[in-house]
Amino acid sequence: TLFGNSTGAVIALAAALSGHPSVVELITHEPTLFGVLADPDGAVASVQPVIAAAVEQGGLPGGAEAFLRFAAGEGFERLPAEAIERIRGNAQTMLEAEFGAFASWQPDAAELRDLDIPVLVLSAEQTAPFFVEAAEWLAAQLGTETVKVPGGHMGFLDDPADFARRMGMRARKAHA
After folding, report:
1. Rounded to whole angstroms, how far apart are CA atoms 149 and 111?
2. Buried-most residue among 59, 78, 115, 124 (CB within 10 A)?
3. ∠ at Cα 89 (31, 100), nearest 5°?
4. CA torsion angle for 28, 34, 35, 39 (degrees, to 10)?
5. Which pLDDT score is estimated for 19?
6. Is the dihedral of CA 15, 157, 71, 40 positive or negative?
7. pLDDT of 98 strictly over 90
8. Residue among 75, 67, 71, 61 nearest 48 (CA)
């Protein structure tokens, strides 16, 4: 089972669509499929001022950390220091290369319909509307429904055990 959150959900989805043999079940949580949104520029614009202000004060590493704080919310404090430093160290790649590529990628609807593995699409209860829209688009293409889970965009940081339990229960019910 491959789990991905945010851009990780996009990477996991691309791996599944490529037919990677190790992906036998996919769980996506809040995929950043901005290319499918009615207003993709509006979604990106919601975080740009946060990143820009932080870049002005702390360079690209500060911008990456500000983005992570924005995405994780209160869960940021639960992230290991080494994970935060790794993201700060990869700031140039993340902000100058990945954001644009991830924001514009849109999976082919026919390929999604033909995907022959179970896919569970999760959306957080307390999240930005554009994440809900992207998750609902993906679920519709897959012929399934979006499952709501507690927390925000990185709600699994709030109570990882509860999140995993709920996610596992939903996956079993969806594939029963």
Report:
1. 26
2. 124
3. 40
4. 140
5. 87
6. positive
7. no
8. 67
- Interval 104-122 mean pLDDT: 92
The pTM (predicted TM-score) of the whole model is 0.87
Long-range pairs for 62-70 at CB < 8 Å and ≥24 separation? Answer: 62/88, 63/91, 63/95, 64/88, 64/90, 64/91, 64/94, 64/95, 67/94, 67/95
Q: State the Cα torsion 6-173-145-27 to the nearest 10°.
A: 20
pLDDT for position 173: 53
Q: Is 27 helix (H, G, I), strand (E, B) or coil?
A: strand
pLDDT tens for each residue of 40-72: 888 888 889 999 999 999 999 999 999 999 999
Q: What is the pLDDT of residues 140-176, one digit of tens each?
A: 999 999 988 888 999 888 888 888 877 775 555 555 4
Q: Given the structure tokens 């992207």, which residue do they identify?
A: 134
Backbone angles phi, psi at 146, to 5 degrees: -80, 135
- For 79, the token pair is 């992230």
* 3 vs 11: CA distance, rounded Å: 10
Dist CA 81 CA 60 (whole Å): 18
* Contact status, residue 124 vs residue 131, Cβ threshold 8 Å: yes
The residue behind tokens 């202000």 is 53
CA distance 133 to 33: 9
3-state secondary structure of 149: strand
